[in-house]
Amino acid sequence: MDLHLLIVIFPQVLLDGLILGFMYALIALGYTMVYGVLEFINFAHSEIFVVGAFVGVEILLMLKARGGLELLSPFLILLLLLVAGMAVSGLLAMAVERVAYRPLRGTPRLIPLISAIGVSFFLQDAIRLVESIWRNAFNLVYPTMDQLNHRFTLTETIDVSVKSVVVIVVALLMLWALHLLVNRTKIGKAIRAVAEDQATASLMGINVNRMISLTFLIGGAMGGAAGVLFGIQYSLINPYTGFIPGLKAFTAAVLGGIGNIPGAMVGGLVLGLLEAFAASYLSLLTHGAFGAEYKDIFAFSVLILILIFRPKGLLGEVVRERA
Amino acid sequence: MHWRGALRSLLSRPVPAAITVMAAIALSGYSVAHFPRSIMAFLLFQASILLLYFSRIHPWLKAALAVLTLGLLMPILGTINGYYLEVTIQVGIFVSLALGLNIVVGLAGLLDLGYVAFFAVGAYTWAIFGSPQANKFISEAWLKFPLASEWFFVFLVLGVITGAVTGILLGLPVLRLRGDYLAIVTLGFGEVIRVLANNLDKPINFTNGPKGITPIQRPPLFFQPFLHLLGIEAPPTALYPLYLYFLVLLIVGVVTVVNRRLENSHIGRAWEAIREDEVAAQAMGVPLVRLKLMAFACGASFAGVMGVVFSSKQVFINPESFTFLESIGVLAMVILGGMGSIPGAILGATAVTVLNLQILKGLSLWLNELRNAGVTILGYNLADLPTQLEPAKYERMVFGAILVLMVILRPQGIIPTRRRTRELGAE
User: Fold this and answer.
1) CA B92 to CA B7: how far, in whole Å?
2) N or C: which end of chain A has fewer CB within 10 A?
3) pLDDT value of position B69
4) Closest partner CB to A307 (pick from B177, B393, B397)
5) Distance (Å, rounded) from C-alpha A171 to C-alpha A229?
6) Interface with chain B: mutation pick from A38, A117, A136, highest number of B CBs within 10 Å
7) Nearest-CA distance from A117 to chain B in Å?
8) By CB neighbour count within 10 A (0-12 exposed, 13-18 middle, 19+ buried), where does A265 fall?
9) Residues in B touching A126 (Cβ below 8 Å)
């Protein structure tokens, strides 16, 4: 085994893992917030995420067609993409809740989950349909922006591209903003109250339905932002891109303790790092017998192990059992 | 609602019902034979079988009509247009998958989102040993593969066993999980099986990876000597579809009977108790662990046996046939028909398969014809329609819409179980 190589690639793998981890953390927030309030896995969240990515690519392609990419500063464009992606994804998440989940409140727990799977599948093909009519193509590529692709070399073996830094900074800012919103504002307090006990919260004069809508809006917006960042970082997207990252992000949420916002961040980072290391070290350690293609299996095994040995997750609260 | 009442009163009186049903089957069968390319005719034929199910005629007459329709009329129509037979075989395969999942989801209330994994395990069991593939890891000097086609029947049994064992293996670690967590873990399990099938071509080549395995042995034509005695000479290519049809029909029959017997046994009652309230069921002395494992094993074994049939029917399999989409498709069938309902699962499987294979494909073809002909509607030339727009590619949309609409508008399904009707009937 080439020990030297293992050490040399370590910082680069760490960086890749961090980027992936922040992406997962942003998506995981959507799962964990909804779970915290409704105790329900919003399976359609991965499509909310993809919608954000598609909003981003559409705006970029339109700007490109009009020559706007050279005119505007890339950071202004980025801001525009993030705002648009967050708005569309957030509103879509709210609409989905209204149409497909609200009528099912109070039914057995599996019923809303089935509805969510239905919404997820429906949205995948709906995106495809819209893009097929609009562009006659549904595998889209983010146009490159030179300033974002610029790489600067730190040492001989590590180089960082501007967009990686952007992804990490934006993710950190959003996580910080969310933290403030949930813990420091009145709205955040109301959301937490609804998560704690819906009936009591409504007795205290909190409009429960509005708070649930708001939760979907915020979670969806985070997903949309993650979608835009995903597109900028990995450039290739299609309507089915969201499935695997969505599942991983859910794993991250469970890993950190579902329903717990700091937990989602920690879980996302841990899973991202684990996966990056599995992807690049597995084949080195087994002499090529098991390659990077096993990284998904690795993530799922992590999920199963946590659920068996530590179902509350790393930072988990006690999960109440409801018959 | 008026025509529905009229139809109901017509079907509830024995003699008019019998005449109506027979006329419907005969007419639609004739129209299928006469217009072999018409999808409408075949749909009418299927509808007449449904009519037979709902009509209140003497059980013996009903059984006789069913045997006549499925055992004689359908094969004849199938020789006129082979595609109908292909559709019917697919329907049969999905009916048994839906019945298997119905045990797990419908009766025991355990949401399994990776059900197609068991189907894959069954399919790969026969594919590996019923093709030269096995020689890639077993020396030819020791045993020469593929196994003789007679082994197919042994593998049908093996399919049941491997399915059940995989079901138990999955069930054991996840028994403590509830509801939605279980759903996600089974989903992960389904993906793991697919990824394994995709990547186990190295270091040792078990599954031949994404390239898939081919050629897989077909089941043996053991009855050819008899046909020879009867003076019927038919080439194997003409025999196989009919043979597979009867094989699938037989398995579906067995699976249905097993399902019925299970549902009414104390095991079935215990499953329903677990579904309704796990804690209460345990308090009543229902052994949770054993019964949940049994539900997984039973459901999985149906999928396993059909996997063996599927791989021998397709001759070629690769991991693409066992995606998450398939698992959700089977789930949509169960939900559409009505959770826990056996006729519901059969109807759901038929409806969804026919929708996928015939209606959506038919729409695609039709749209293409219109596009090529350059028809203009309201000033819009259809030749300008985007080429990516193909209804056949939108099965996820159909599955998704079925799941959401059914769960919101008619949670008990098309043919609900009697118990559900009583529970939800008060609304």
Assistant:
1) 28
2) C
3) 85
4) B177
5) 9
6) A117
7) 7
8) buried
9) 397
CB A114 within 8 A of CB B335: yes
**Residues of A numbered 295-314 whose beta carbons fall under 8 angstroms of chain B's beta carbons: which are they?**
296-297, 300-301, 303-304, 307-308, 311
Q: Which residues fall within 8 angstroms of residue B106, CB to CB, at 6 or more apart?
A: B334, B338, B339, B340, B341, B345
Specify the DSSP element, H or E, that contains B241.
helix B236-264
| pLDDT per residue as tens digits for the range A208-261 | 999 999 999 999 999 999 999 999 988 899 999 998 899 889 888 888 888 888
Q: Which residue has the tokens 């006690």?
A: A318
Q: Is B235 helix (H, G, I), strand (E, B) or coil?
A: coil
**Residue spans per domain, chain A:** 3-309
* ipTM score assigned to the predicted complex: 0.86
Helix axes A208-234, A162-184, angle to 10 degrees: 170
Cis peptide before B146, with omega less than 30 degrees from 0? yes
Size of interface A-B (CB pairs under 8 A): 138
Q: What is the distance between the alpha carbons of residues B310 and B317, in angstroms, rounded to a whole number? A: 9
Cβ count within 10 A of residue B61? 16
Range B15-47 burial, b when 16+ CB lie within 10 A, else e: eebbebbbebbeebbebbeeeeeebebbbbbbe
Parallel, antiparallel, or unpaired for β A159-161 and A151-153?
antiparallel
* Interface list for B 268-307 with A (CB within 8 A): 277-280
Q: Which residue in the set A132, A301, A307 is minimally distant from B181, CB to CB?
A: A307
CB proximity list for B208: less than 8 A, separation 6 or greater: B133, B136, B201
**Tell me: the pLDDT tens digits for B146-191?**
888 888 999 999 999 999 999 998 888 777 777 678 888 888 888 8
A311 contact residues in B (CB cutoff 8 A): 176-177, 181
| Helix (H/G/I), strand (E/B), else coil: B413 | coil
pLDDT of A308 over the 70 cut = yes
A118 interfacial to chain B (CB closer than 8 Å): yes
pLDDT digits (tens, 9 = 90+) for A24-60: 999 999 899 999 888 888 999 999 999 999 999 999 9
DSSP state for residue B232 in the 8-state scheme = -
What fold is seen in the domain A3-309?
ABC transporter involved in vitamin B12 uptake, BtuC (1.10.3470)
| Residue A273 structure tokens | 């790092």
Q: Please, how many CA atoms are within 13 Å of residue B414, restricted to the half-sphere of its CB? A: 21
Does residue B182 sit at the A interface (CB-CB below 8 Å)? no
